[in-house]
Amino acid sequence: MVDRHEERLRGPEAFSDIPDNAERSEALFREMGKVIESPRCMNCHPKADSPTQREGRPHTPPVTRGVGGMGAEGLQCSTCHGEENVTFTNGEGSIPGHPAWHLAPATMAWQGSSLKGICEQLRDPERNGDRSLDELVEHNSEDTLVGWAWTPGVGREPAPGTQELFGALTRAWVDSGAVCPGTAG
């Protein structure tokens, strides 16, 4: 049985019939956007100083980014977020967890940006965590905090597809020129 989330994200081969390389690259990024714009990614890439949670709702309790995206002194992320997801005793939700749970740096804020704006940001090392495009492929393919988006715990919809598929789309996008939406042609 195919996971319903995987069905919603097409792999790079779905774009092989687009003859123009720039148009194919743009289409690949639009497909990546299904993951990038999902709540699993957006919640931890806020433009404000506070994350959102669940499906884009304000974080409870109210918290701030703090030094290194780890929360304010006295109320760091690890106060509530442990090394793994913890299901509520009633089984109707969970507290997300990961050993390196933190917000993305403010320079990597996406909430409220267009997909084109996010794409331009991801291509810019000054705004993407000082990563080359090849390092971005590795980050999307292998980083376990990115991978949390597909195992977010009870009560949260996973990001579309799989991390492996997202990484393959990222590789195909980079290999085709890393063209951003609205710039092909």
Automatic annotation (TrEMBL):
Name under which the protein is recorded: Isoquinoline 1-oxidoreductase subunit
Species this chain originates from: Roseibium limicola
Residue segments, region Disordered: 1-23, 40-68
Residue ranges, compositional bias (Basic and acidic residues): 1-11, 46-58
InterPro entries: Multihaem_cyt_sf
Segment forming the signal sequence: none
Cross-referenced SUPFAM superfamilies: Multiheme cytochromes
